[in-house]
Amino acid sequence: MNVLITGGAGYIGTELVYTLGELPEVDSITVYDNLSRGNYNLFIGHRATSPKVKFIHGEILDSRKLRSTLKGIDVVFHLAAKVTTPFANTDGHIYEQTNHWGTAELTYALEESNVKQLIFLSSTGVYGNTIDPVTENSLPQPDNFYSISKLRAERHIKRLEGKIKTIIIRLGNVYGYSKSMRFDAVINRFMFDAHFIKRITINGVGSQHRSFIHINKTTEVLARLLKTDIPAGTYNLSDKTLSILDIVDVMKNVYEELESFFINQNYTGPNLEVERQSKLLEYIPLPETNLEDELREFRTKFTFYPG
To answer: Which of 11, 95, 146, 255 is labelled catalytic?
Structure first.
């Protein structure tokens, strides 16, 4: 099986490369990335999967290079995206170009290819600000540039239905250690500040909820999609729904001297709760894990602990 990962040098992509590299049924992994994040960590310090992996420096809007890259590919993981938290409502043009029209270009190329399966990482953010917990049956109501561009990308993916097996994964907020991790994601940022500054800043009242999933669970589920016969469709993938204050309480168990400060205390923030019992978990169950244990393990990945 020959696999292509767009955005394969990113946070999720890096760990997915390592995970897929351990599967005997995967013969080759092509990483397609423009390295716009300036992140080169995929390319250093880990050689176990190198015989299977090759890299193509390319833009998701480069239709000619996409068509060439897809030759001989069986499965595509489409991860390439513009993701910047918490600035999802600034610079709408770049979200449209990368997330929306970049996915459109990939879709056009796939229509002319022999690819058998496409797995697209969307976001639970397409549901917008909600009062009640959402499921796959909930109506998307995106409310910022990022989530709007993701929903528009989904519509392009759905054009392939009946031609290529398509699976859309609406993913919760990812956290946890990776060499290519993002520190703009809330739990990762809190961990950095708690470890090195011993103080975290909470924007708003802290009661707003979000859905979260650990990076290891994310890549394990994505890898198992190659070996599990599930129907084409759209699935949520989320593990824990937590408020900001829930996260802070757990972090204070991990870092006993941690201080927390509130800013913009009149700001309630958007709320999004996602039901854990997704249709996807009927095929690929998630193991139960404890957030405090995960964060204690995360803490061991920092290279030093300042006195």
So the answer is: 146
Query: Could you tell me the pLDDT band of residue 306, with boundaries at 50, 70 and 90?
Result: confident
- What CATH architecture is 2-175+212-239? 3-Layer(aba) Sandwich (3.40)
- Mark residue 38 as left, alpha or beta (left: phi above 0; alpha: psi -120 to 50; beta: remaining): left
> In this structure, are strands 209-214 and 117-123 parallel, antiparallel, or unpaired?
unpaired
- CB contact set of 214 (below 8 Å; sequence gap of 6+): 174, 175, 176, 239, 289, 294
Is residue 40 annotated as a catalytic residue, yes or no? no
Span between the terminal Cα atoms of the chain, in Å: 49
At 175-212, the pLDDT tens digits run 999 999 999 999 999 999 999 999 999 988 899 999 99
Q: Is 64 exposed, middle or buried (0-12, 13-18, 19+ CB in 10 A)?
A: exposed
Catalogue the E-assigned strands of the chain. Answer: 2-6, 28-33, 53-57, 75-78, 117-123, 165-171, 173-175, 199-203, 209-214, 233-237, 240-243, 259-263
Domain boundaries of the chain, sorted by first residue: 2-175+212-239
